[in-house]
Every structure is written in C-alpha cells, then in structure tokens.
Amino acid sequence: MSFKTWAPILGCVAAFGLFAGSASAQTDAAKKLAALQGKLQQQTTQVTGDNPQATTTCAYTFTSGSGFDYLQYCVTVNGNIVEFQSPQGIESMQASPTTGEGYGVCDMTNNNTAYYDWAGSDSGNWGAPTLVKQTATEVVIARTTSDGLWTLTQTITQNAGQQPFARVQMQIKNNSNTSKQVLLMRWAAVGALNGFSNNQDDLDSTTNSVWGSFPANLGFETPTGGGLMLQNLGAAPDVEFYQGFPLNTYLGPNPCAPVVNWKGPLTGTDGSILMVYAIQNIVKAKPLTFAMKYVAF
Q1: Sign of the alpha-carbon dihedral angle for 178, 242, 118, 262
Q2: What is the CATH number of the domain that holds 214?
Q3: How many CA atoms lie within 13 A of 6 on its CB side?
Q4: What torsion, rounded to 10 degrees, do the Cα atoms 251, 252, 255, 257 define?
Q5: How far apart are CA 92 and CA 105, in angstroms?
Q6: What is the pTM of this model?
Q7: 204 DSSP assignment
Q8: Number of domains within the chain
C-alpha cells in the first residue's frame, strides 16, 4: 500500500488545519495520517473500557549515575513507564495531572479494534502480563490481547552514561491467520521540570522525535530549562511510515484516531507526546520490532 493510499484515510484532519509544522516531511506525514484518520472515522472503533489490571504503581525500578548523569525510571507490571527522573531531582512524567505512559494498537483489518494501556486507563481488552525476564538493567514483559489476536512484547533497558536513557523495544506479533494492517504507538504525558508552571510546556516533533520542554529562564524561579524526548531508534522494514506528534491534551489518545488532538508545534500547553508506526502488512509468521528511547534534554 502506497503513501497515497494512506493519505485519503487521514484527509479530514487536514481540513481542520491540524497540519501546522515547520518541515515539509512533517507535513507530508501529517497528510498521510490525516488520510488514515478519515478512513478510521468511517468505521466502528471497538473500545471496551478499563481493565482492573490498569495501574500506575511501580513494579520495577532502575537507577544509574548521579547529578546531571542521573536517571531513575520505573515500570509497571503491564510495561508502562510511570516515573522518569533525569537529571537528579527533575521529574518529567509524574508531574502531569494524571500519570500516563504506554502503548496502543489499532487493528484496522478487524473493524478498527483499539487496544491500549496508558497506565491510568486502558481499553479493557488485554490479558494479564507475563514477566519474561528481569535483570538489574532490563525487564521484558509480554502481553496478549484478550481476543488472542495480538501479542506485544516489551523490552525496556537501562542505558547509563553521560546522557542516560531508557530504551523501549516493542515487538508486535499477529497471532491470526489473516494478514493485518495496523497502527502501533507509544505515548506519554509530559510535565517538564517537575511540572513547573502547571505543566505549560512547549511541544513539537520531527519524523524521528517528539518532545515536551520548558524553556530556560534566567530568573530565580527556574534557573534552567529542560524536557523529555521520545525518539525513534529503529523501525521494522515493513513499516509504511512513522512520525512523532505533539498532542494538545494530557489524556491518552484513541489508537484508531491518534491525531485528533495533534496541533503542533504547541506552546504553553498541558500536552503529551506520541510516536506512531503505520504497518501495512503483518503476517502470523513474522513479528515486527520497533525501538525508541526516552531521554531528558
């Protein structure tokens, strides 16, 4: 399927002027996702409601470095990162009005069924998580949807050093005998600099990255700026396209309508960051893997 085929699916968003951006590549990706949005709005999206297993409680905590090289983040049993502190004393996630981070899937082939877990809320159609592996620097968590059609395996790895980061690898597996068209995404609510100024951050994106930040200020109240970036590290060769999107809300998106709240770049906004991967053909025998990282800047 070509970019032009995805484009008609997202076109209705463009009509409402949601494609503001400085780079032509960013605008092109926006049009492709806008076309996708149009197709999704014409069909029924199945979202069932919260699962009792949804949680913002830390289960696995990873810490490295000190001072400016410090990083501490924690992961829930379901594979959500619900704390991200870097440098030391600077929190970028828990400061949001509601702690939110996680993963989403839209099965476009199956009547646009949405599966998501944003930590504080989820779609109610996931099975219990399975701890595959845990070490001092890594946790691997697998989770299958309650209908058995998809398995998502997350590998979250500590990367210590002068600019430490949390590496997130997501492997998505189609368990059905049908070739699928799907959207896979990672999302986080941002509250830069411990939510300074009520989380009124600046947000923007490129094809490979999306971020929220609070600008540097020479006043006594906030002597330095800072932010959180979600950056693509590698997309499976079968991906049709991918793009980062700043959202004008701190609430998690509907995976089958991911760009409804995209209005970037944004200034002074209580927003969130989203990376979307569009996959045109995923078959049972070939799981696809995507890697990204969370890093303070």
Answers
A1: negative
A2: 2.70.98
A3: 23
A4: 10
A5: 24
A6: 0.85
A7: E
A8: 1
Q: What residue type is assigned to position 297 of the chain?
A: F
Going residue by residue through the chain (297 aa), what tens digit of pLDDT does each one get? 443 444 433 333 332 222 333 345 455 655 665 565 454 444 445 555 667 789 999 999 999 999 999 999 999 999 999 999 999 988 898 766 678 999 999 999 999 999 999 998 999 999 999 999 999 999 999 999 999 999 999 999 999 999 999 999 999 999 999 999 999 999 999 988 777 666 788 999 999 999 999 877 645 554 467 899 999 998 888 899 999 999 999 999 999 999 899 987 999 999 999 999 999 999 998 999 999 999 999
Element (H or E) spanning 62, and its range? strand 60-64
> Tokens representing 222?
């906030």
**Domain carrying residue 51:** 3-296
